[in-house]
Amino acid sequence: MLAGEPYRPGDSEIQADQAAAKAWMVEYNASLAASPDARRALLSQRFGSVGEGAVVRPPFHCDFGYNISLGRDVFLNFNCVILDVMAVSIGDGTQIGPAVQIYAADHPRDPEERAAGLEFGRPVHIGRNAWIGGGAIILPGVTIGDDAVVGAGAVVTRDVPPRTTVVGNPARPVKKTS
Question: For the whole prediction, is pTM greater than 0.90?
Fold first, then answer.
């Protein structure tokens, strides 16, 4: 799975990792009234890395957690979902609106492979100082460049260059800032 090869989601090791993530999410999602430091300590228990000042407002959902890396001062608003079957990295200072969904999980296009229960993943990278509007969906394998803006509700199917604003479904550039 971590190498991007096809895998079976029912594998016992994968199921055990997801069960641990579910138990962690119960605790994390009950921590809304906790201090930011207490929530960051919980994030550090599960995530690959958590930069200083990073904030994830509960509720939050993920597949595993350990494939997620947050830079300094990253902000994820309420109700974000990250399907982290592969690496999902979010750069310093990036702000992510409510109900954003980031998918590293993917499915074969071939119907026989799908019928066989195979899945695979592709990493997602979001650069520093990006802004992702509420309800946006980031698809597997996408890279969003530094200082980019993704409009609310956009469905990002392709890489977004640095300093570019994209909107719509599928997301298309509307302007590039200097």
Answer: yes
**Are the C-beta atoms of 27 and 42 separated by less than 8 Å?**
yes
* Segment 1-43, tens digit of pLDDT: 988 899 999 999 999 999 999 999 999 999 999 998 999 999 9
DSSP code string of 65-123:
STTEEE-TT-EE-TTEEEE-SS-EEE-TT-EE-TT-EEE-EE--SSHHHHHTT-BEE--
Establish if 146 belongs to a structural domain: yes
Q: Which helix (H) or strand (E) holds 129?
A: none
Q: How many domains does the chain have?
A: 1
Torsion of CA 28, 128, 135, 137, to 10 degrees: -100
Which of the residues are catalytic? 107
Token code pair at residue 125: 């990278």
CATH, residue 58: 2.160.10.10
Q: What residue type is 26 in one-letter code?
A: V
Strand partners, 131: 95, 149
The pairing of strands 124-126 and 155-156 is unpaired
Q: Is 59 helix (H, G, I), strand (E, B) or coil?
A: coil
d(CA 177, CA 164): 6
